[in-house]
Amino acid sequence: MADIKPFWQNYFDGAWQDGGAGRIDVINPATGEVLAQHALADRADVDRAVSAAQRLHRAGDLRDMRPLERGRLVQDMGRYLSAHRADIAELLTLEQGKPLWESLIEVDGAALYFEYYGNQAATVEGRSVPLGAGYYDWTEHEPLGVSAQIIPWNYPLEMTARSLSAALATGNACVVKTPELTPMTNAWFAKAAEAVGLPRGAVNLLCGYGAEAGAALSAHPGVNQIVFTGSVPTGVAIATAAAQNVVPCVLELGGKSAAIVHEDADLEAFENDLRWGIFFNAGQVCSAMSRVIVHQSRAEEMAARAEAVARSLTVQAGIDSPEFGPTMGAMVSDAQRDRAVGMVAAAQGEGARLIAGGHPCNSAGAFMEPTVLTGVGAEMTIAKEEVFGPVLSILSFGDDEEAISMANSTDYGLVAGVFTRDLDRATRAARRLRAGQVFVNEWYAGGVETPFGGYGKSGYGREKGREALWNYVQTKNIAIKLGAAS
Ligand code: NAD
User: Fold this and answer.
1) What order of strands is seen across the sheet that includes strand 415-419?
2) Which of 2, 64, 74, 259 is most buried per CB count within 10 Å?
């Protein structure tokens, strides 16, 4: 295992910097031990980082670069991450808890965002609008300026990569507020920006508390756009701050996503969807398959299969799981684990039946048993509120109408799934499900190329795909009155 340096700094204005708010201990959730300390930014640091980004934007070094060349730099950042894949993945597992094989997938996913958006840089084209012989008119897209990005702890690399790559590709200078529980892997974005030769001020990274550095960044008058990924209450605070400064924001919030499983579905194949859908990253995934709504004729079989999947997983320190396999790591913190355990107990109190897991593991570290609840009713708290842990709720339905209304019965609307061999039925359901993305016959079908984002309290705006590019640009129309022909 690589040596981890004892103190990590923030990075802004092209230099590594201490934090005005002191330091925070970064804990390895698999052991409860301190891994290292990280600098904590205060308001003044936020101000300095935003000023550095503004200076770059005004100077035009990134904004005015030929998009093809800017795109090449963005792609180079992805290559840099890939070249350091093993080191980054190990650090991610140590600070976040996920199995090493999952961390490798996350590093690859982060690199893919830079490849994809680097490729898209030159495709953000304008168009000429015909106004008759007396005018020449065109519409073009300009970067917004300073993009502020506030990142959660569950996928610190991929979430930063997702917004940073698209913002840079479109010519914005970025200030990223990294998550205070998992800040260290983000340092690799600063190293990548330096290594590929991005201009000073293009990438600024600050770790700080949400209520201090996060709030200061989202309310900063020098910020022109905000991307936030995290919880609903924080999203509301950030949208309020954005409204005060009249700047746009993108909110990627939580979910309580459901898979509808019809009587003709292939339940053996569905075991794989269960595995990825609710136990990947110990269920700490915004688009987790936290509810399965199964036809009553297959409910018993579904419960037996879900129980078997849960019991087949070995829960252990992520660093001991380098190879892809049936393993689950620690949750990010004891507090997150205890919250999830408490929600399971409350669900039992409301009448749900626990058939697997439900408890902390009998070892040090933030480990929780893979958990399955059956007999869950749509009105129960566990069917409405996000657990953000390895906890599956199984509900059952009688007809298609009931299944759709159950799936749509939460305030959220991030993703949904339909499992059936009948494509007409799946298509009809997909149209009626209140969710930003619908998976048919494979949970997490799609990729960096497909737009992603929420309906309802899951947020607004779209990340991923070409749709995300429009978050980072503003539209300008230029209309010229031509003089009379001589
Ligand atoms: P959180 O809202 O507590 O924190 C997210 C980020 O916001 C952190 O960096 C935090 O420091 C910062 N923050 C906190 N208070 C702030 C404030 N007042 N002003 C500005 N910034 C502030 O969420 P979390 O617990 O870190 O993450 C879990 C949540 O994120 C879950 O609800 C999950 O569903 C959601 N999430 C959504 C997506 C998505 O793409 N939709 C992805 C990952 C996580």
Assistant:
1) 353-356, 371-374, 391-397, 289-295, 257-261, 415-419, 437-440
2) 74
Q: What is the pLDDT of residue 2?
A: 66
Instruction: Tell me if 286 sits within 8 A of 399, measured CB to CB.
Output: no
Pocket test for ligand 1, best of 95, 96, 229 (most atoms within 8 A of CB): 229
- Looking at the domain that runs over 7-253+460-475, which CATH code has it been given? 3.40.605.10
Listed by start position, the domains of the chain span: 7-253+460-475, 257-447
3-state secondary structure 50-106: HHHHHHHHHHCCCCCCCHHHHHHHHHHHHHHHHHCHHHHHHHHHHHHCCCHHHHHHH
| Cβ 6 vs Cβ 37: under 8 Å | yes
Q: Which of 90, 95, 252, 386 is catalytic?
A: 252
Confidence class for position 228, pLDDT limits 50, 70, 90: very high
Cβ-based neighbours of 322, under 8 Å, separated by 6 or more: 100, 101
> Tokens 């180079």 correspond to what residue?
76
Both structure tokens of 109: 């996913």
pLDDT digits (tens, 9 = 90+) for 8-49: 999 999 999 999 999 999 999 999 999 999 999 999 999 999
Same fold, 7-253+460-475 and 257-447: no
- DSSP-derived letter for residue 220 is -
- Give the span between the Cα atoms of 374 and 300, in whole angstroms: 9
Residue 357 Cβ inside 6 Å of ligand 1? The answer reads no
Pairwise CA distance, residues 93 & 317, whole Å: 9
- Which one is catalytic: 286, 307, 369, 463? 286
Answer for the pair 392, 303: CB distance below 8 angstroms, yes or no. Answer: no
427-472: pLDDT as tens digits = 999 999 999 999 999 999 999 999 999 999 999 999 999 999 999 9
Whether residue 63 is predicted with pLDDT greater than 70 in this model: the reply is yes
Instruction: Please provide the CATH number assigned to the domain covering 257-447.
Output: 3.40.309.10
